[in-house]
Structure formats: C-alpha cells, structure tokens
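Service request form, structural biology core

Requester: graduate student, group of Dr. S.
Request type: structure prediction, single chain
Budget code: on file
Notes: please return the result as structure tokens.

Sequence provided:
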Amino acid sequence: MKSKLKYLLLLLILNTIEASFRCDYKYSFKAHAWFKSVVVPATWFDARLRCSLEGAVLASPTTPEILAEMRNLMNHSNPEFEIFTGIHATVSQGDFYTIEGIPLSNIPVTWADNEPNNEDNKESCITLNGNGELADRQCQETRPYVCYRMKTFKEEIKDCGTVDLEYNLDARTNKCYKFHTVPRNFSRAFLACSAEGGHLAIINSETEATVLKEIFAKYPEADLVGSFRKDGAFIGFHDWGESWDWRTIHGQTLTDAGYSKFRGNPASGQSCGAIDRNARLDDWWCDATIPFICEKTPDFPAKCFD
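Core staff response, request fulfilled:
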C-alpha cells in the first residue's frame, strides 16, 4: 500500500513540474503536450521539416487526447477540410508509420468514405479531416498541419530562448548563433533559421564580423562531411532580384546595416550572400548548397510555461 501511495505521489509531482516551450505553441493538459496549428498549407515534407526545426514533431492522432486536440485546433467540422498528419509511407510504399515510428496498425483510425485508395499508386501521406477521419494523399500536395511536442517534465528553454543546444550566446553582440553543418541552398537555409526562431545572420559591425569568423573557424573543412564547398557560408543578404542591389534580408543596404566589406567584385548572376572564412562578404549561387549561419535574440520566440 505504501509503495502504491509513493507511486501516486511521484506521478502528482511530475505532473506539477513546470516545463517551458515557445509561446506560439499552446499546452494541452489532457494530452500533456504542446500544440501549434499552422494554417499556411505546405507539402508533407516541408511540414515535417518545419515542425522538426522548431523542436517539435508533425502531429499524428496516436491517442484519443491528441486526436481531440488536433480536431480542436482545426476548429472545423467540414469533412473536406484536411490537415496533414505525421503518418507516412515515404520510405517504402504502403508501409505507414508516424514520424516517431508508430505503425499505422497500432493507431485506432477511422477512414473517410472510399479511403484509403492509393490513387495512381502515388498516395503515401495521411491527412485528417474535420470529422476525425483519415485519407491517403500525395505528399507533394499542400495542406495545413499541426506540430506538437510532448512535455518532458523539465525546464526546456535555454539561455538562447530555444530548446536547440547548438545556439550559443555571444556577450559581445548579445545575440545567439548557430552554424549549420548540413548544407542547404539559400532558400532552405532561410527556412531553417526562420523555423528555429531566428534568421540568417546579418553582420552589423566589425565586432560581429569577428564573431562569425570565430564561429566559422570552429568548423574546419576537414570536419565538414560531404561533397560541397566548405570555404563559404550563407548569411542574410541578397540582391532582391535586382543585380548588384545588395541588401540584408531585412531590407537594409549593407552600409546601413553596418558592414559592407566584400571579398572582391561581385560576379554577375550570383545573387545570394555568403561570407568566406575571413568574414568577408561574398556573392554566391542561390541554388548552391553550402553551410550557413543563423542568429536569433535570446528573448524570441517568447517562452511560456505549461
């Protein structure tokens, strides 16, 4: 009897410990998880990526509580209104699992009429409609979606206002930086920084240039794995579709931003901005895949407790 009481007391304590996460997510006490509804439709692959970069997971209705919260966030009873779930067969056609690896056979599901039908043998991603019913769809179609993160019974937000431990605060600029060793093109790099709560780094002073130079030096070419250029990293400036009109991603000229030290004469056709290992600005092909540097302020996104 005593051991049972101790167990119940432990459960009570664990459920009263505060945990923190981004304020653009809302905590559900019934599901013991944080949820965020994303209304801008995306492909399944982009939805999965954005949720992951935010420190969350593309939600799947694996429990009645999670299903109820997903439907509540949808706030829509029209059965034709759909959101993507994390259930997919993108690795092997017909083998459906959630992002976390739970097989579809372990999820109590209700299928919409005439579903699943795997039309043209191309439907490998699962949607949820307003009635709580599932359907298979093509992953390249676009739908809204829900991200979620399970509560882990501990303080999660760190000094940089994120659960991502790769962001580090530099006292010289009072900004947090992350060097992405996985190369992406300029557009996907912009996406990654934005989802993480920051943006591609913008150099606002000689001091900040020194900071980025030191960050880059921590990743010598020999330590970067893959066949891509390792002498440059994307940061936050480009020509906005007008050749030679170099501005930051926030619209400032480089001079107004506080740093305009170019490596050499910009070449025609290279429209996106990078730095070399000496933190000199360089123009780069936007579709090239190279490392990149994100920055964020410690207080964004805002931190909320459950």
